[in-house]
Amino acid sequence: MTDTAASPAPAALRLPAVDKVLLSPEMAALRERYGLDACTQAVRETLAQMRASAQQQLRAACGSAPADAPTIVEVVQSAGQRLAQRFAPRLRTVFNLTGTVLHTNLGRALLPQEAVDAVVAAMTAPANLEYDLEDGGRGDRDDLIESLVCELTGAEACTVVNNNAAAVLLTLATLAAGREVIVSRGELVEIGGAFRIPDVMARAGGTLVEVGTTNRTHARDYEEAISEHTALLMKVHCSNYAITGFTKAVSDAEVATIAHRHQRHMVVDLGSGTLVDLREWGLPYEVTVRETIESGADIVTFSGDKLLGGPQAGLIVGRKELIARIKKHPLKRALRVSKLTLAALEPTLRLYLHPEKLAERLTTLRLFTRPQADMRERAQALLAQVQQALGPRYVVETAEMHSQIGSGALPVENLPSWGLRIHPADGRQAGRQLTRLEAGLRGLPRPVIGRLHDDALWLDLRCLEAADETAFTRQLPLLNIA
Ligand SMILES: *Cc1c(COP(=O)(O)O)cnc(C)c1O
What we know:
Strand order of the largest sheet: 3-11-10-9-8-4-7
Bound molecules: pyridoxal-5'-phosphate
Number of strands: 16
Distance between the termini: 43 Å
Shape: globular
Oligomer: single chain
């Protein structure tokens, strides 16, 4: 190391040389932990910052008060903070107390333990991803889950891609490029900003033919729009909105019948796509993939990480010959999933073979079905600790609230829940107090994300399961509401 090229310090400030700091015994632990390159950079940046602030102070004091030179220990301490920050993971686990279980911005479905174990195994050892263990030849990665998906949905075949947006894109690119796709105006959805049916259609090379009106579409609207250019009739699930009032939509079965009468295919973008009838668990009704296939759809696409409760993925199920064409499209290679996704998906799907245990083992379903009394009890148990951490400036109460399934699944349905409702003790400046509180909670080692609503911060306890409660309460004393 010959680096002593620290730029000249102002007369009043003598900074230790970079080398001297790096070679100091105080630096040894940081060098061991972060390596020489990162440490050199951190020390240089620290010294540069100290120089700049000393110069500023000097100017402010008109050059009369010479600043104290920082010691090596001080430089190491400050460099250590820089290094810790630089090496801290950017993707962090948080507490989702928003009340939205499948929160897209917080990563949607949490994986069941079986899936987690399978992912770890697939990450740390070679696997038969595309290797046929029967004959030693090349395999197809979709084969790993195809029979399971077919059993659970009644479809003939299946392929998996990166997400449902990819599933829709690939399906349209394969079956509708250069041709027309008929979609009801009531179903031209936008999901989370970037997924819009008209845009995806354009990217896939298809031409959208809109029929009906926003609130009413009739069978004859589809019928009259069919031309020699028509490739598909498509239905899109109204995932994140509801059209109510004077409405008319044509059922999947009717649209399929019309399509087939004209030798056309019928495609459904189901969005969330549940594999089971959620009413069996006391949840609102959502059409299942099986029902959609039974109603005559030739292709159905849906997400892996919404109601299904698995990893991010897009499943395309349906007729064998269509799936075969979809799999041959060059985009399939670009959109295919990794072994980690398949590793997580397979055990998640297998949980569905044992429906009696599903609500216990499938994390998302367990959260959806968590008894309100359970959350109410936890709210009462946590109240005092949270109040103590927040101090007298805030009032913490237990309160009934309503969770959402999220990710556009059942957007108008609420799940009765319970949690903590926090509002500033002093009504003046309540807005600012709440913003501070929110920021403080976000600043915790494991950030706590709540929901601002009605001049209060709501912490919905549905997604705070027993196993995580200690981690939640243990960090509360660190709360800093400056
Ligand atoms: C969620 C959704 C999508 C997008 O699915 P991703 O898995 O997020 O890509 C597309 N269509 C509908 C109807 C949806 O609900």
